[in-house]
Amino acid sequence: MRHLGVLALFLFLSLIWGQTANGDDGRPTCRRCDLHHACNCSYSGFTRVPMVTDQALSLDLSFNNITMVTQDDLMGHSRLTLLDLHANGLAEIHPSAFDSLWSLEELDLSDNQLTVLNPKWFNKLELLQHLNLLNNPYSFLGSPSLFLGLSELRRLMFGGPDLKELRREDLSGVTHLEELTVNANNLDRYDSGTFGDIWPLGRVTLSLHGPFLTNPALAAAVLNDVCYPETRLTLSDLHLAHYVSVQPFKDSINMIRYLSLRNVSLSDEACVSMLALLDGVPLSSLSIVGLTLTGEGRWVTANRTDLRSMDEFFASDVTILDILKFAMVSELQYLLQYQKKLSIINAKLFLLSCYLTKMMVNTLYLDVSDNLLTDLTLTYMLCDSEETLQELRVLNISGNLLKSLSTLSRLVTKLTKLTQLDVSRTSYNSMPSSCSWPSTLRYLNISRAKLTIVTPCLPKSLEVLDLSYNDLKEFVLTMPILRELHLSGNKFLRLPAGGPYPNLQTLTIQSNTLNAFSLSDLQSYRRLENLEAGHNKFVCSCEFITFLHSQLTGSGDVKITDKHQTYVCDSPLYLQGEAVSQVNLSIIQCQPVLFVSVSCGVALLLGILVAGLLWRCHAFWFLKMTWAWLKAKRSSQRRRRQRNTEGTDPLLSFDAFVSYSEQDASWVENFLVPEMEEPSDSDSENPTSPLTLCLHKRDFLPGHWIMDNIMSAIERSRRTVFVLSENFVQSDWCRYELDFSHFWLFEAGGDTAILILLEPLSKDDVPKRFCKLRKLMSSTTYLEWPQEEERRPEFWRSLRNALRGDNEQEN
Ligand SMILES: *[C@@H]1O[C@H](CO)[C@@H](O)[C@H](O)[C@H]1NC(C)=O
Ligand SMILES: *[C@@H]1O[C@H](CO)[C@@H](O)[C@H](O)[C@H]1NC(C)=O
Ligand SMILES: *[C@@H]1O[C@H](CO)[C@@H](O)[C@H](O)[C@H]1NC(C)=O
Ligand SMILES: *[C@@H]1O[C@H](CO)[C@@H](O)[C@H](O)[C@H]1NC(C)=O
Ligand SMILES: *[C@@H]1O[C@H](CO)[C@@H](O)[C@H](O)[C@H]1NC(C)=O
Ligand SMILES: *[C@@H]1O[C@H](CO)[C@@H](O)[C@H](O)[C@H]1NC(C)=O
Ligand SMILES: *[C@@H]1O[C@H](CO)[C@@H](O)[C@H](O)[C@H]1NC(C)=O
């Protein structure tokens, strides 16, 4: 018993061991690798680096709880090109943990708990191109430089809330970068020139919140080192409150062409100082995303700021803290008159004055989407019937509070160079029956409005028309040069006919209520190449499925470009939710008529075949015979029972029942009967008593069923004589008789059959199917009717003896 207990414990332990320690030394295993050996083991709660196939090319371990990478954890991964350890709480990495990763090109250690960075980590990573060390609690990079051997490094990200100092030699080894991102919000110390050796620099993103606020000199030093005309500079998290806080730009602003600010707050004072700095600089693109204006918009120096070089101004997500006091309108005109491309998006803008737009003589592109413009303020902005924005090519007023398409069309008609108009996400709910548009208009986006019908208001000059996410059921307009038509998210029941769009190449009609479409539908479009029609309510008929399968496999001229999984059956019910590409309908479902007719045909053919076969095998004959025999047997039994109950003896009234064929009747009547029944006393010394024969012709009771007659004849006769001849074997009757007699043989248990061969007949002459007769012929001796007269008495004697034999014994 104790042994058993120990065994159980052992088994239990080994089970536990087997579950947790599927690796060498208790390391978990991750098998989430795809065909391209990309292993995604993120979000798996690993606390150690899991075992992964050596074949892995990329390994994503982000969002786990791996706090440590040991020397052996990544051993053997010499093929790995990408290792992502982002967000793990990683605190410790063995100095040679990455030593075997010779092929590594991308390493992400961001958002961890690394307090010290060790140059030894990167010693062997000569091919490393992207390195992300952001947001770890180290306060300095350390020397010697981490990056000395990394000559291929092109993207470098480091820093975090704890980064305090950057020293001159910290970045030695870094020569040129496509992208540099430094989070230095709390930087205290920066040695001038630390970034200065890196050139060229493609894109620089700096978070310098603290330095801009408290140490402008430091911020200026950093900016000076990264500003080159070809470098795109992004500064984020700036709080520009005073004159001082914009001074870091003072020296470098002349070098900057592309400036982008993210998450910036700006006071009036800072703005005025900034405008003063921007006066006449070669800045060509200024982009501000996430701008908080804390002042009242009193930018008095604006009329002195020359922004002639600025081609593009982009502002989005603008918040004005004190919107009631804010009054910047008149100053804006000076700032916005030069840009070719002007975007003020999501800025709660409710008015741009006509006065302003009249000054925007250079503007080709104006995007004021996601603001609070109404039909009225739009009328004002576009100067009603007066000329304005004469150079404008693109106007984007999407996401505003616009309701009247006729107002819009009236206003934009005079923009004689307008080619693109985006009025999506507006409240247009009806369309006048006719409108005027600039003849140059090629692109019109009225998606996500509330249109229920379209009318010839839409211009025929369009090449791209987006009407998606409205309430349309129909689209029948002639658009001779239309290339792209977007009708997704409406209520179309079928594809619009292609005739009116001879040049259409792209049609999107997803998320409607299309039941199906067919090849002829597609063929009505002469030049259609791309179709997107997923997320509809497809009725998965056989025709549609076959058609779509061929279309999805790309055999048609039209490519289906959206995801194939989005083509889902809506009906019939048993296919609801199934992706069309996964449905295989059987021929029964698809061609019921064909199926039924073919199967009926096959069944008929089979029937005929079987019947033929049966006929050839004489099955019917056997059946008939069996049936008759069964019936006759029953009545014979009945008779016997009757006799038994009546107590009468089984009367044998005949000596022999003679079974013969009609053709042999003459022989029976002329020879057999006279000889047996009225024996001539030629042989007087041995007088023969007459034998009684039963002949069906003579002794059968008329009116009884013949089978019964035969049966009872056989019953009442001691013997059965078969007169065999060619004729006999051809007669059906004989067969029955033969068979009955055969059964009788079995039942009586005696040797009651006597065969007479009228003509020489060998067993082989008897057809095979008369197997019983054949058997009888081989087991019973038979008498042959001699052709020679002198041998006949001998024959008769033998026959008589045979007929009498048993009788004598019985007596
Ligand atoms: C790994 O999967 C997560 C979701 O589980 C996904 O967010 C991440 O992008 C994937 N990583 C890669 C490299 O595909
Ligand atoms: C992993 O870390 C997350 C948050 O860092 C924590 O909520 C979770 O409990 C940790 N899981 C394990 C298994 O340690
Ligand atoms: C924006 O910058 C401020 C500091 O000026 C910072 O506190 C805040 O977290 C930043 N917001 C975002 C979304 O980055
Ligand atoms: C700018 O506007 C102020 C008044 O607001 C005016 O005194 C000054 O002359 C203007 N300067 C230019 C260059 O127009
Ligand atoms: C108009 O603005 C919206 C939102 O900012 C944008 O999605 C769309 O692409 C713009 N349209 C054009 C034609 O640039
Ligand atoms: C039309 O505007 C919507 C919403 O602004 C945008 O998503 C869509 O891409 C635009 N359509 C085209 C064809 O540019
Ligand atoms: C239909 O056939 C495809 C391959 O031809 C197969 O992948 C799919 O599983 C099949 N779908 C069903 C429901 O049998």
TrEMBL record:
Annotated GO CC locations: plasma membrane; receptor complex
Disulfide bonds: 33-39, 354-383, 435-457
Stored Pfam families: LRR_8, TIR
Compartment(s) of residence: Membrane
Residue ranges occupied by any TIR domain in the UniProt entry: 652-803
Keyword match Transport: no
SMART domains per record: LRR_TYP, TIR
InterPro entries: Leu-rich_rpt (IPR001611), Leu-rich_rpt_typical-subtyp (IPR003591), LRR_dom_sf (IPR032675), TIR_dom (IPR000157), Toll-like_receptor (IPR017241), Toll_tir_struct_dom_sf (IPR035897)
Topology within the bilayer: Single-pass type I membrane protein
Broad class of the protein's primary localization: membrane
GO biological process, one term: toll-like receptor signaling pathway
This protein's record includes keyword Acetylation: no
Positions of transmembrane segments: 593-615
Family the UniProt entry places it in: Belongs to the Toll-like receptor family.
Protein name, as recorded: Toll-like receptor 2
Organism (species): Poecilia formosa (Amazon molly)
Upper classification of the organism: Eukaryota, Metazoa, Chordata, Craniata, Vertebrata
